[in-house]
Specification:
about 180 residues; alpha+beta; 4-stranded antiparallel β-sheet; about 25% helix
Length: about 180
């Protein structure tokens, strides 16, 4: 697969998913808040330079065709709404992720964006399944997965399989993994 991810755009009825760039670094810095990152890794940036460094890292991985990170915009107004992407797209188990700015929560923006990215991945990537790890208490992200029929992983006792991820001494995530099978 060789796609020019610098010009790559996905479109839905309401959204444009465009390549993440430094053009939106101020909005990303402003909206990627401690509240938004409560159930995520990495934490929010303390300085705009951290956001720009993360974008630079994303651009390097995108150039190597290892990662696809997209900025979500309102199709009509071009308002910044969040980011969505796939890590490890060359691997047999890529990882899907999303974050939506607070003011856009509850409007099904996240569901629409990940459904479009999943549909693209189903057509264009070779994978065993896509993983979608979320903190067990992240209700919004869980609703997205469940509304799209993604499968939460269960342990031998029939409970959700939970992986502990220590982000910092004060931030510990309890990750459940949803899986999206290849169709």
């Amino acid at each position: 697969m060789k796609i020019d991810f610098t010009t790559f755009i996905l479109e839905t009825d309401r959204l444009l998913l465009i390549p993440t760039s430094k053009e939106h670094s101020q909005e990303i810095f402003k909206e990627f808040t401690p509240e938004i990152t409560q159930y995520m890794s990495p934490n929010s940036a303390k300085e705009i330079s951290e956001t720009q460094e993360r974008i630079d890292s994303c651009l390097v991985k995108r150039e190597k065709q290892e990662e696809l990170q997209m900025t979500i915009l309102d199709k009509n107004t071009k308002e910044f709404l969040g980011n969505v992407g796939l890590h490890e797209i060359k691997e047999c188990i890529p990882e899907l992720w999303i974050w939506i700015k607070k003011s856009a929560h509850g409007k099904k923006v996240g569901r629409e964006a990940v459904a479009k990215l999943e549909a693209w991945a189903q057509e264009n990537l070779d994978f065993d399944y896509i993983k979608y790890p979320v903190d067990k208490d992240n209700i919004g992200s869980r609703k997205i997965a469940e509304s799209l029929g993604w499968i939460v992983q269960i342990d031998e006792q029939g409970n959700e399989k939970i992986t502990i991820e220590t982000i910092s001494p004060t931030k510990i995530l309890h990750i459940v993994e949803y899986r999206i099978p290849k169709k």
